[in-house]
């Protein structure tokens, strides 16, 4: 298998964490796609992923799977023992619900803030920007942080009693927030304590350096 990603990217981090949690790091090769050069928007890359986003998983039969949730689902199901996406209908439902909330209320909101209300990836990539929309999404992301703080005051993990894809999605959101210097509100004690614990997990701590073969993009 091959993963097209950018090693410090918050969305690629989600798949890198999932790979590590499943012990699949040695089964993939990584190919870098330089976001700041806009390589993810080229016709060649869009032939692999119409959306022009990272990461993308390429299977040995030539199939391309994009979107972090879909890739995680695939990886988690490979050995028939899912640990990240739920083992029962109830678990799957709750995990997917919370992961989607983490995307909508936090991760994607930070992304819109980055691309619209900051220099983003630079003028060659950011062809259109709407600063007002970006700032509204910044505020939405902060509200999302407060929501997940409330969730984590009641339970150990985002979707219940065990680490799951939902936790990985919130981690991705906070990684992105750090990159754009958007701090978690100081009174979100539960979220901050949870994130400190998550950063101690080897899958999270080693995500950037994790690789089998890192290839230069062509």
What would your notes on this structure say?
This protein has eight helices and five strands, in the order E-H-E-H-E-E-H-H-H-H-H-H-E. Helix 1 (10-21) packs antiparallel against helix 6 (165-179), helix 4 runs antiparallel to helix 5 (131-152) and helix 5 (131-152) packs across helix 7 (189-198). With 218 residues, the chain is of the alpha/beta class. The chain folds into two domains: 2-83 and 204-215, Glutaredoxin (3-Layer(aba) Sandwich); 89-201, Glutathione S-transferase Yfyf (Class Pi), Chain A, domain 2 (Up-down Bundle), CATH 1.20.1050.10. The chain has a five-stranded mixed beta sheet with strand order 4-3-1-2-5, with helices on one face.
Give a short synopsis of this structure.
By secondary structure, this protein is of the alpha/beta class. Helices cover 49% and strands 7% of the residues. It is built from 8 helices and 5 strands.
What's the arrangement of secondary structure elements?
Blueprint: E1 2-5, H1 10-21, E2 29-32, H2 43-46, E3 56-58, E4 64-66, H3 68-77, H4 89-117, H5 131-152, H6 165-179, H7 189-198, H8 202-205, E5 214-215
Parallel strand pairs: 1-2, 2-5
Antiparallel strand pairs: 1-3, 3-4
Helix pairs in contact: 1-3, 1-6, 4-5, 4-6, 5-7
